[in-house]
Amino acid sequence: MDDGLDLNVMFGAALGLAEPWQVVSVAFDQEIGRLDLGLDFPRGARFNCPESGCAEMGCAVHDTVDKTWRHLDFFEHQAYLSARVPRVRCAEHGVHLVNVPWARPGSGFTLLFEVAMLTYAKQMPIAPLAKMAREHDTRIWRVIEHHVNTARAGMDFSEVADIGMDETSARRGQDYVSIFMDLAERRVMFATEGRDAATVQAFAADLSEHGGDPTTQIQRVCCDMSPAFIKGIKTHLGCEPHDAQEGEGIDAPASPGHQPQIVFDRYHVVAKANEAVDAVRRAEAKTRPELKRSRYAWLKNDANLTVKQREQLTWLTRPSMHLKTTRAARWRDDFNAFYDQPTPADAEAYLHRWCYGAKRSRLEPIKEFVRTVEAHWDGIIAWQQSRLSNGLLEGTNSLIQAAKRRARGYRSKTKMITIIYLTAGKLPLPQIHTI
Ligand SMILES: [Zn+2]
């Protein structure tokens, strides 16, 4: 029995090689810890023409090109596949390099290696991944970018009706990235640099490229109260009504126009109320030093307070303290109760009463918040009908925070966006197959 032959057949089976490819050599270099598998095809083999759409399956080999691909490690040893890849002559398309089943054209990695890199990249930062794989990180990034871009290009967004938009900073308080989510599917559709109206324009263009109709398709948008987003929505995700028009050979039908309903995200509205409480506290702390270093005690949910913070709050909110901050926090708590009202009608009546009272609070930041609420009335009330919320703030937000960590050490926001798509885009990435 020939042991070498058995080994070739065994590796061929393990790789899932199909005709006419077979393993013809197995070489292991213990010194450098490297396994090399030589692949080849028998003389006279015929190949498909690689041009897409060409049905020619019996092309003769013109000549060959030697190629090597990094494969998944064999235990702790690096494994490589090598083959002479045929260039075939098609009667219609001429001479071309054939596609091999274990790697995509132009890649120095096997598909299995690439899929493994994608799987790891969902779980760990790229810098240590590159180190673990013993590859330069630019090669790992190229693999990830290729598969993310290819998978995204094929996605269809024509059925998306409800979207959420939010911004996140790539670095603390700067370099903003705007994120657009499909709320029904809970996936990131689009992310881009900046946080102005132009980001909505870029989203609209991307929606067009994915089978969508940006000016008529979006029914509801959940976002914060930033004027830039509001302006961008009105300009780029809606259209003006117009009458039927004749002339120049084009008869445009009448259109009732379209505007998506804006729903202000509950979390962002409540954050504004909290800012008002903190503004009152900061001003008051100038004459009431006991308020210093109490910021989080006022802003955290009761359930999240530490024992110390709860004691601090109990002390500060005693009636005999007569703190303005206590009154501000009560107005904030009363505002939050808007979200617990049983019906939209109850909620709207409740909010009217709250505004009426809060305007007379003699607390300037609270009165300022009332003006914000009144200026954004419809979008705040709309939450009661749709109960839409930005999934960004629950599961997806943690994915985006993770994406920032994955791309840490890379200044490019494009890289961070790539990882956001990889981890939160629900992309149809290639699956593991045998080779
Ligand atoms: Zn052809």
Describe the protein in words.
With 435 residues, this protein is an alpha/beta fold. Helices cover 42% and strands 19% of the residues. The strands form two sheets. Strands 1, 2, 3, 4 and 5 form a five-stranded mixed beta sheet that branches. A five-stranded mixed beta sheet has the order 8-7-6-9-10, sandwiched between helices. Strand 4 (77-90) and strand 5 (94-97) form a beta hairpin. Helix 4 (137-153) packs across helix 15 and helix 14 (395-406) packs across helix 15 (413-424). The longest helix has 20 residues, at 266-285. The model has no long low-confidence stretch (mean pLDDT 90).
Bound molecules: zinc ion
Using only C-alpha atoms, the radius of gyration works out to 30 Å
N- to C-terminal separation?
Answer: 28 Å
Q: Number of helix segments?
A: 15
Proportion in helices:
40-55%
Query: How much strand content do the residues show?
Result: 15-25%
Summed over residues and divided by their number, the pLDDT gives a mean of 90
The largest pleated sheet is described as: 5 strands, mixed
**What structural class is derived from the secondary structure elements?**
alpha/beta
